[in-house]
Amino acid sequence: MIPTVRTFQVLVVVNWLAFMAIDFVPMAFFTSNDRILELIALDGVGSALGSGMTQAVFWANVLLASIAALGMLFFQGWARTLFLVLLVANQVGTLFFGVRVSHPTQAFAGGIMGMTDGMTILLAYLQPLSKYFEQRDAGTEPPPPDPDEVILR
């Protein structure tokens, strides 16, 4: 398969769906084993942030990630910058959120998200796709991307 503009847009959607799955699919959906649920409840133990601050960061992250994904679907330059800033901030933030405990399905979705994060940043900042983001940043309206335009050869 040759990556196209449409492939990039699908990649952004898959990344966002993996992010939402990690954050919103309740663990009880995957298991009814009380011992596993007790272990998962230990997620965040030893956090440097209080639970109120953790919730605020969580909801801000959900909102900003959704805005960034939507903006990247329409090749908004600010959206790829926001996406990159969120990735860096989340990576640094892992140092403050305590011990992490996750279900294997969360780890699976996290692996998909990690791969699509890297691919999304790579494609958004390299030619030829970056031209659509840059033209919008410069205030000129680029022609709409051809969904079948090949972006990697």
From TrEMBL:
Alphabetically sorted, this entry's keywords are: Membrane, Transmembrane, Transmembrane helix
Q: Where are the transmembrane segments?
A: 7-29, 56-75, 82-101, 107-126
This chain belongs to the protein called DUF4345 domain-containing protein
Q: Which organism is it from?
A: Usitatibacter rugosus
- Give the source lineage, highest ranks first: Bacteria, Pseudomonadati, Pseudomonadota, Betaproteobacteria, Nitrosomonadales
